[in-house]
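We store sequence with structure; for instance:
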Amino acid sequence: MNRSRLFYASCIALIVTAMTFAIRAGILGQLGTDFGLDNKELGFINSMAFWGFPVATVLGGLLYNSVGPKRIMQAAFVFHLLGLLLTIFAGGFWALLISTFFIGLANGSVEAGANPMIAEMYKEDKSTWLNKFHVWFPGGIVIGALVSQFMTGANMGWQLQIAIMLIPTLIYAFLLFGQEFPETVELESDTSKNAVSLLTPLFIFMAICMTLTATTELGTQQWIEKILGNAGAHPMLILAMITGLMAVGRYFAGPVIHSLNPSGVLWGSAIIATIALVWMSQATGAMIYPAAILFAIGVMYFWPTMLGFVSEYLPQTGALGLGVMGAAGMFATGIWQPVIGGWLDSEKSKALAQGIGEAEASVVAGQATLDNLAFFPAILVIAFGILYFYMRRRRKMSE
């Protein structure tokens, strides 16, 4: 087994996953114009990626023990290929809806196959390697955002922007082709036992926390343009800066995790993310940039460390546990999207009713929404504080 080649293939597959989010966000305006779609219809199209993802992660988790990572990663390639090609040749709303669902299935399959595979290949240091793997989600968003911005500026159509993702898709398929994959011996191989293990209090607690960590990270990023568009800073530059810092932080996560342990990292991240969102809710102009840097530090370790914690301390949940964790995070993010949009609309309406101008009302609405988003990591400060002391006590009892 060439675990380096499998790891690189997984990273490139995750880059494709991230690029689908970034490039689709960049071409929404073109899709709306070309097909005569309103924002509500575009919202439904976007939501398909969020719903396809948890379907694939849960099904992948259930099937992992019987089919192994090879078949799941092959399915990810097929779904990516189908989704991208169907999008390129889409003729309207329903075709875009179906193609986006296939892309969501592909993205979820990457997580369902790669997370447990990497945990198995690097079982001596799972959290560190899962963080290194998840470098390429924010890294892929940076790549996708820059590619979309360049191609849009060069008057290249949205079809070409979708087609560009076929290149990394074919590359990761080539790297996977003909390779030996790890067996599932180290992971619990009985799916029924995995399912029972999901009912333990610690896993349920972590799954609930995953809904909050994912919404803190992805919920804020998805609405960065609307939240900060009139606040005196460039939203896309901030998004690139946040995701770029997240990529660097995840790559060098090893020393941080070893010094603080996963529960300590999660607790510290929640504290920093809360402070950052409150700061961002009050900042305007150039002061948004340091607040955004602090936010990046707060959320950079959330997703991979949550998965690493489950893999290390709840190994009996197996691949199914990792799949359900990913599904919980993405499912919650999908649910909160219209709620966050509603906050922006209602706060802006209140500001306009008070006689505030259009641009300033948008700033007020964005600040109020960031205040609301700060409640998610604030709850996690308490939850992860409890987790930290619980895990410390458990370690002492086992010594």
